[in-house]
């Protein structure tokens, strides 16, 4: 049920930029410059059905095994709203992003609110650590 996004069209993350200039390069291996950009790229990965990117951008200490992680293809991720960011910038090693993701599943429209925690690894890459329902 995942929406098919055009790579030359708007990015699923809602930034207003084209996918090829926004989340596309991060999905291709470029490091995210901030925790918020990583959050946006992870939303886009859910929308596009990119489980390998989601696992690669997850902190290895909290990441599930590949066999325990599968995307629900009955969910269509539609919109992302960033409510707040704390830290997560160029000079930080940690950050938080509070967001609402809007989706549609078999039971209709739903919202997922979360305050996600991110950490920058020794390699300079931001990674998702965990999150709490907001």
TrEMBL record:
- Source organism, top-level taxon: Bacteria
Its recorded name reads: SEC-C motif-containing protein
What organism does the UniProt record list as the source? Answer: Leucobacter luti
Q: Which Pfam families match?
A: YchJ_M-like
Q: Which InterPro entries match?
A: NTF2-like_dom_sf, YchJ-like_M
Q: Please state every residue range assigned to the domain named YchJ-like middle NTF2-like.
A: 34-131
């Amino acid at each position: 049920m995942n929406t098919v996004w055009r790579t030359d069209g708007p990015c699923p993350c809602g930034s207003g930029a084209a996918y090829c200039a926004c989340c596309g390069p991060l999905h291709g291996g470029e490091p995210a410059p901030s925790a918020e950009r990583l959050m946006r790229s992870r939303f886009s990965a859910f929308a596009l059905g990119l489980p390998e990117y989601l696992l690669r951008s997850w902190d290895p200490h909290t990441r599930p095994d590949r066999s325990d992680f599968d995307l629900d293809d009955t969910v269509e991720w539609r919109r992302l709203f960033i409510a707040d960011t704390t830290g997560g910038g160029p000079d930080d090693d940690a950050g938080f992003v509070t967001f609402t993701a809007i989706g549609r599943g078999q039971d209709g429209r739903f919202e997922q609110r979360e305050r996600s925690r991110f950490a920058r690894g020794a390699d300079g890459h931001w990674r998702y650590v965990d999150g709490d329902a907001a």
